[in-house]
Amino acid sequence: MSHLPLRVIGGVALVVAIALPASAQVSFATTGAPAEVTYAKDVAPIIQNNCMVCHRPGGIGPMDLVSYEDARRYARRIGEQVANRLMPPYYYDNDIGIQELQHDWRLSEQEIATVVAWVDQGAPLGNPADMPPPPDLIDTDEWAFVREYGQPDAIIRSTPIDVPLGGQDMMHWPIVPSGLTEDRCIKAIQVKPAGDAKSVVHHANSTFRLENDNGDLERVGAQGEHATEYAMGKLGEIVPDGVCRLLPANAYVAWDIHLFPGGIGTNLQTDVLEDNVVEMGLWLHPRDYQYRYRQDLRLYGIRQGELVLKPHGTAMTQGFLTFDHPVRIDSFQPHGHLRLRSASMEILYPETGRIEIISMISNWSALWHQSHIYDEQVAPLVPTGGVIIMKQWYDNSANNPNVVDPDLWAEYGNRTSDEMSHAWLAVTHLDEEGYQQLLEERQASQERRVTQ
């Protein structure tokens, strides 16, 4: 389930069936719903706008929710998933930290109350004349931002690779030319596996490389900034106005693609899924685009020492990040594997010592990786010397239904059966003048809201 503007989401059909405890984030709503709730008048618009994008023929959802009969058949399960905030799959706490997010998939309290009331009342159809017209959905393999920005200005594809039905995790590291011969600023970027490849691609990281005087390819930037990152469920990234995430002229794209043969599923007609390709779609600003600051995306580790999880044990990792200049955090995306349960980001302000919780994900899922993109008016501003604190919590016990064998040790590694501990942050690098200007603009905006 997902809001319509998202349209297309890479992932696997297991998402609805992911095993999470029913009590993980239960919030059965008892207010906000009409006294009498029908599918035609009240529930159909919610399902059309939030669920049908995935739950339809050709979609990644494991069942269709196109008709009333479909919804009636799965009504009890829909009610449970919605009430527990497992569907739509956007695991971001509703009462901690910044709540103003772009492409926020979460249902409102009133929508949750409406769906739960409909199920409790026996899932009635109501008057068919109240049924809204079918939604205008784009193709399931279409780009996520096509209705906002049109087709991508550039598409960069990995080289194809065959993936067998069974076996160990596979890594694929092709390097391909971007095809662009001049510097361009990126407006939005999306990576998606093409066609059936979405069932076998765990993640696809990418960096821009440039050829040096010796003919070798080097990473762009002192820190080796990434072009973007894809993991199952991720929509893509939107770069704020007035900043530039640079695609250098004559760059190459170095792919780091993790594939898992077990993801092919039981419906495959052959023993090999052939010619799997991952695509990067780039929406670019005009050549004369004016900007003041640069933005980059990097992977920041969240562990002091080694990441080792003992059998039937739990663990917490934390990492600290600071800059010698002010920054704005534009998006936050924690990353782990099957044992990761929760993640957070905080900011320590050096002048006062105050710690502010920015984002919290208490019910993290390895099957849906979202880049939480903050609205520009609330994106966290970090002063020079401010400390960004990132924490993650792990559960390697039988209490975590995603753990296959809690008797095993687990440590850091690339395989799905291993663990990871890092976060992806998109950061705009400011100067003191720009930082103060943004603070003043936000204060003035807040004062206007108070006086209105």
Descriptive terms for the model:
3 domains; six-stranded antiparallel sheet; Jelly Rolls; disordered N terminus
Write up this protein.
With 452 residues, this protein is an alpha+beta fold. It has 3 domains: 4-130, no CATH class; 146-291, Jelly Rolls, CATH 2.60.120; 294-437, Sandwich (Jelly Rolls). The protein is 14% helix and 31% strand. It is built from 6 helices and 25 strands. The strands form 5 sheets. Strands 1, 2, 6, 10, 11, 14, 15, 18, 21, 22 and 25 form an 11-stranded mixed sheet that branches. Strand 7 (201-211) and strand 8 form a beta hairpin. The longest helix is centred in the C-terminal third of the chain and has 20 residues, at 432-451. It is globular, with a radius of gyration of 23 Å. Residues 1-30 and 264-268 have low confidence and may be disordered.
Topology overview:
Layout: H1 39-50, H2 68-73, H3 75-83, E1 101-102, H4 109-120, H5 146-149, E2 154-157, E3 161-164, E4 170-172, E5 175-177, E6 184-193, E7 201-211, E8 217-219, E9 226-231, E10 237-238, E11 243-247, E12 252-259, E13 272-276, E14 278-284, E15 293-301, E16 308-309, E17 314-322, E18 327-335, E19 340-348, E20 355-361, E21 372-374, E22 381-382, E23 387-395, E24 410-411, E25 422-429, H6 432-451
Parallel strand pairs: 11-15
Antiparallel strand pairs: 1-21, 2-14, 3-13, 4-12, 5-12, 6-10, 6-11, 6-14, 7-8, 7-9, 7-12, 15-25, 16-24, 17-23, 18-21, 18-22, 18-25, 19-20, 19-23
Helix pairs in contact: 1-4, 3-4
